[in-house]
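User
New here, help please:
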Amino acid sequence: MTPTAAFRFDNSYARELPGFYAACRPAPAPEPRLLFVNHALAQALGLDADALDGPAGAALFAGKALPEGAQPIAQAYAGHQFGGFSPQLGDGRALLIGEILDRQGQRRDIAFKGSGRTPYSRGGDGKAAVGPMLREVLIGEAMHALGIPTTRALAVAATGEPVYRDRVLPGAVLTRVAASHLRVGTFQYFAARDDAARLRQLRDYAIARHDPALADAPQPVLALLDAVAQRQARLIAQWMNVGFIHGVMNTDNMTISGETIDYGPCAFMEAFDPDTVFSSIDHQGRYAYGNQPRIAQWNLARLAEALLPLLVPEGRAEDEAAVERAVADATAVIETFPTRFDTALRAGQRAKLGLHARPATPDDAPPAKNEDPATVLADDWLALLQRQQVDHTLAWRHLADAAAGDETPLRALFADPAALQPWLARWRALCAAEAPMPATERAAALRAANPRIIPRNHRVEEALAAASDHGDLGPFERLLAALQQPFADDPALARYAEPAPREITERYRTFCGT
């Protein structure tokens, strides 16, 4: 089978939503060369992974030779960027080339990023550089290994042409796989144009694709908003529990599917501090680590606003009572977000503390903070890490050593180890009271809940610099292999668990790559 015949496309977005995109072909790459192919993902998608290698695969993934059945389109969307609304954004350097059904029958988008100008490029070159595209691989595969919903990289191909940023860089194209590329901003695009007919089309498509059971709900639009809010609450809780900072939580970067998308100025926190910001363009700290739950709720409110015309019964747009009722219904959904987020966050924290899952309450809401000792314990733990400037990932990980009877690795992280002891005593008491188990069993549970290896920022930059500046993919490949084993205790991977020196972390900045 040739690479161009490996895909069996069924392009529902292009077929069912005319007027939602612009047809566009990728720019031809002069000298395509494969840098990465995700064979495991290819197999899960039902593709012939071996057929994707070699020069023919490079031509495919660089956009030079499109697969049979591909229908490349640039999707239209709007978005709030750092709080300011842009009524037209769209895929300025990306193309949805088609959709396939994976081995589980799930529909997946296959899309290019960095494949050249589109009608939505707004003066940009539409290109991408090797470093940022390989970053998408590293962070996306790390998130997948951590069990966090994410888009994933199927391939990266060098184009053989330069890309001009602050300096000349080698160009590349990423092939990204997603449950869909529907965003909050997709709905905002048509709401901003008062196009209720296309909003209804988009509603029906989104429900059919992501929540088919909601089609028969009494209020399908409200049910869709509720489902998106639930997915996003769980997603942001997972981000927070591993110290992930997205960096650019604009509404065009929030998916309806609940997958993490766009790994531009993202990073993982090292020393715990809720105010941590790495993005070079986030001057006010809008998307700081600790602000992410609030911003997610804000983004969902923008989705509710976009959906509002569909929440008012047809023919009653001028009926103030009907509009007020629709606003109240949508607001009620948005106001559930903090509780949903807190429930997901606390469930993750209980696992990270080595405790059993909290018994469900009748309304599935978490108990008040002062009634739940695990919540108080987790909050006090994070406050202690912040005061002592302790590495977030290793502090949680070394609880497993403490559970096994060796406090030395954990104590070594603290400038004042004595400050740790009162908290440890409370933790041991709560574990004994709530979840008695043998020490070895608890240690194993803690190691399964707390990763040892995350994409340490200095290791990521080392790998990307070697690939971009010297054409050396060895550091990238070794780092990727380590990130795919985040819970492993393999001594050979120890260097990937080490934090960066503080002087590096303090001045570290990430960039969007455009």
